[in-house]
Amino acid sequence: MNTSVQTVRIHRTGGPDVLQMDTLELGPPQAGEVQVEHKAIGLNFIEVYWRTGLYPLPLPSSLGTEAAGVITAVGPGVTGFQVGDRVAYASGPVGAYSTRRNMPAQPLVKLPDGIGFDTAAAIMLKGLTAQYLLRRVYPVKAGDTILFHAAAGGVGLLACQWAKALGARVIGTVSTRAKAELALANGCDEVIVTSEDNTVERVKALTSGKGVPVVYDSVGKDTFVTSLDCLKPRGMMVSFGNASGAVDPVPLGWLAQRGSLVLTRPTLASFTADSAELQESADELFDVVMRGVVKVHINQRMPLADVGRAHELLTSRQTTGCTVLLP
């Protein structure tokens, strides 16, 4: 039996105005799939990349990678899930911008009772990103001094709290003085306001001229070279986003000239493709949230129908913390 669902899709790439609410007929889940009724949907910058065409998608296409809800139907061959399960996901085929969808069961994780739908939709992608950055790409240890760009953003607020709990000294960058206060209240020991300060000079001053062993950079084009210049010899540059635009091709000689630097461009998909690894990462994330080690800031809640406005606020850096879309 088919069900009518509301889905935000793009029929062409462009600005927020290309986001269009369509009514579609949804059939039963196929083999290996479940049907999820969404209760809350996460908003993430990768959806801007898809909307603008930076990351091409076949059109027309829905958007969205992260949501939480309840399983309403289970397709043939699915084990480990049943109707009524509270679940969340942050990967798999795009399509989270919808009231209900069919999707593969593999990317789903079960929600513990202590994690609400809003919280799950806010933290799955950002929190799992923080987990793989801090625990797997460069395992942060007590005594490390790290530099985290966009410290007042969705990933930044979670990651800086988590890094502080791991015993690191956290230097964050933000774009405004108001965001500096937010970052300082969420794990940062020092905050650099990029509109007022020279980031490289401040980092060198804060590290007695040595630089840091790791920089986490989701800003991209505007901060890439600066990030390299903040590293100590043999440090690691972790470029995991392009909020300011794609990074230009990098001459490998730059890494040698700055002291045998390591450059990586990781993605969440590579760290969650295995179901066991995904569940392990999610369990660690849920644990630090439920214990209060990491506090979640859902600072914007907007109806799914207002997703265009949500994209405008996100790209103009007018959001802080997490944004949740409500079907």
TrEMBL record:
Q: Which UniProt keywords apply?
A: NADP, Oxidoreductase
Protein origin, superkingdom: Bacteria
Q: Gene3D superfamilies annotated for this entry?
A: Medium-chain alcohol dehydrogenases, catalytic domain (3.90.180.10), NAD(P)-binding Rossmann-like Domain (3.40.50.720)
Keyword Glycosyltransferase on entry = no
Start and end residues of each Enoyl reductase (ER) domain: 14-325
Task: State the protein's name.
Answer: Quinone oxidoreductase
Q: What is the lineage of its organism?
A: Bacteria, Pseudomonadati, Pseudomonadota, Betaproteobacteria, Burkholderiales
